[in-house]
């Protein structure tokens, strides 16, 4: 029930608002979203390392589903076919005048030169209007007031103007739009370029493209374009034409020409233009294109509607809807609640508008008297089949402010996403009455019945055109979001804006959303439940109003300062902002229904019973609880059921949700979390009550808060992975696991164990990449601990550090350094055996064995066995006597697996040892064979050879073999040693002489004859010749005399 003022004061002591100074610095109550930057640790400082129990998250997820079910309204067809309608004049204006921009005086002066015709229209795609006076086209930038461009390079009177995107590859890249100018004689294409492509309010440049098509004398009265650049036109003869243009003329085609899409085979006849002119199907009123379904509607003066489906090489005529008056009259009179009559004299279709917010209703036709004819498709999807009239709705609110109650004719009508605007002549000829019509969202949600509200405002001058400014999100990005539930959509986009063009200028109107109206009511309430505020709560229900109070109290970007414009100065606006937030918080906690077993009461001011149809009682939580559910579910609407990862056009892995959208969602979640943290009693389970329903609600609120914090972490987690090249991480993952990520939704990642495990695998892969690139993981670990601690606990950090040491051990060459890394990895793994899985243990042990660290594999397996059975319950387990305790059986099974690793490691070591010994023996014999069969000398100098010979002589003298064998071998060694000494003398003598032949004497041992004939004798080494004769025992008297004579002669 609604709290009394006294109880309200007590509640205010418990709860506090999130004031502007308490909001995160990146998001003030009315600021535009901040540029992308990762959330700082301070924002997430209250996050816990331990995720909440899974059942709490699943309970919260079920509550989110309830929120989505409430927001998921039936299709528009389901509402309309009930033939029950509740209409009322809205107590709050549907649209507000945002600003008026007068037509520049210089353009007004152009009316003085008018000769034959004048008309105007809107180019809302580029925030401009056009004014045509005879053969001159003026393009007016109404956003800048006085800026305009003029085109008057042709003499013919202009009949119609349109704007379309250019075909690719035809024009220079600066040209972003094409202005189509149609005269009686020709169709001209003008290129349009902006000074800055991201801001269409900037200066523009018009280019004459020299692309012109002849009309063959058939004026074109309407032009429409598609997003992919196709141009369609309506001729005064009632035919549909497509303008075909190319970069240059072809062999059999012209550069630019008009193709008749509705004439059939007669278009190929020589006299086709003349025949077409006289074979008129009625003056064309309008040509409309449904971009979503690729359907073109062609409305003529006979109230017939031709339906065309666009195909790649033209259009296909699907259906002609005619005899509409009789069909509409029959449908309307069968409507039990119809008011008045549908008169044939007043039946004239003014315009046709696509209905994109429905899957089965394709378009609505609006008559000049204000009747709306809704046409549905025979199929239940968006595929075009046969269209038929489903419902006729009578005019609402058209008589308000008009000249006479019966004079309600519209001269301009606009419809988009369930909102209709129509201009009628008012009591004053200087004013138009603009009637606004929209669904009553409160009734749609509460009673599931179609209900409409209307209001009106006055516009200066006659209205020529109405268009909607392209819808944008809170970052200013254009978006296409449609639906009947404005309570949900108002958290996704800025307020809708409509441009009304009249002969005096432009009026820009804002569509007032429920939250805009509530803001103004709060500011006017003086913190009291005023009658207007109570009316608002009755219209939308206490749960939906609580959700909006919470939206305002948290400073969501949808809380605009538009309603505060009257405050004046920035200081007053800031003061109003603080007042608004504090008042919204107060109303949120005071507007509350208690948990009950009765039927839901949508507001505490209405005691009527709106129970279940069968009168049964069902437990319901308070309006505050459902308000939190609705607000949180709407914040997570864009991501909750969507995939986390997708492949880009380049087949690269990336976040499925734009990174800027994730940042915006994160900021909104942070603001909500700040609000809940500032009011701890609201979600704390420590607050207990004797009422079991209150305790259940308190636990549910606590679960929602936990889900909120886990989602904040999940977003930070994906942001961090994106910062470290998400595609590279996925390329490093086992290809067999990739399909699991293709189906991973945000809900699964946050609430399921599988999702958490897949997230942890991404972390492990990131750490592995860091290590492979010789980058320390400390910085990444710190960011993970600060921003998503439940995804990356202290145990995960230790495990990652252990992985880093193991990877480094694989890459170092030093045995001592490798062993240090292996031992450190074992020490760290031993600290976190409780988080090791069987597969991880196997992988680590395999790595240890491959690195010859068998000790580590055995020790880690034994510690794992102790961790999985820390109580020792499986030690005495006998498998022959099965235990009834499944935990004991599980512990026994895990211990067996661990012991299996131990035995496998030991067996591997035995096998490796055996193989190693056998391999050593094989290698030794192989080396012996190589040495024995080799004739190559060793690479050593002569001194080293003599040294080895001396050692060999000493060893031979100490040998214990038979005397004959040793004596012979010893004599050979001594002779070789003596000759080697002579060779050493010869080498030194040649080296002293500077003779390079000494180098050969270092390479091998020569015989005494070789030394004499090749060295001593040729180089006249007389002293060494005498030494050779002495060593060899050769007696040659003549040679001795000759040598001594030479020595004496050298001395003389």
Q: What's the story with the biggest beta sheet?
A: 5 strands, mixed
Give me the secondary-structure category: alpha+beta
Q: What coarse outline follows from CA principal-axis ratios?
A: elongated
Distance between the termini: 141 Å
Q: How large is the count of helical segments?
A: 31
How confident overall, as mean pLDDT? 82
**Rg result:** 46 Å
Could you tell me the strand content as a percent range? 15-25%
The strand count comes to 31
Strand order of the largest sheet: 1-26-25-24-23
Helix content: 40-55%
Low-confidence stretches: 1-43, 265-280, 401-406, 561-575, 607-616
Pfam families: Nucleoporin_C, Nucleoporin_N
Keywords: Nucleus, Transport
Subcellular location: Nucleus
InterPro entries: Nucleoporin_Nup133/Nup155_C, Nucleoporin_Nup133/Nup155_N, Nucleoporin_Nup155, Nucleoporin_Nup155_C_1
Task: Reconstruct the topology from this structure.
Blueprint lengths: L4 H10 L39 H18 L4 H5 L5 E4 L5 E8 L2 H4 L9 E6 L4 E6 L2 E5 L7 E4 L6 E7 L10 E9 L2 E9 L9 E11 L5 E6 L5 E5 L4 E6 L10 E5 L11 H7 L5 E7 L4 E6 L4 E7 L2 E8 L2 H10 L15 E6 L6 E7 L4 E6 L9 E7 L16 E7 L2 E7 L5 E9 L1 H6 L4 E10 L2 E6 L17 H4 L7 E6 L2 E7 L2 H12 L5 H10 L1 H12 L16 H21 L32 H13 L9 E3 L5 E3 L3 H20 L1 H4 L8 H32 L2 H6 L6 H5 L3 H6 L1 H20 L5 H10 L6 H18 L3 H17 L6 H13 L3 H15 L17 H48 L8 H16 L5 H31 L14 H9 L5 H11 L4 H15 L1
Parallel strand pairs: 1-26
Antiparallel strand pairs: 2-29, 3-4, 4-5, 5-6, 7-8, 8-9, 9-10, 11-12, 12-13, 13-14, 15-16, 16-17, 17-18, 19-20, 20-21, 21-22, 23-24, 24-25, 25-26, 27-28, 28-29, 30-31
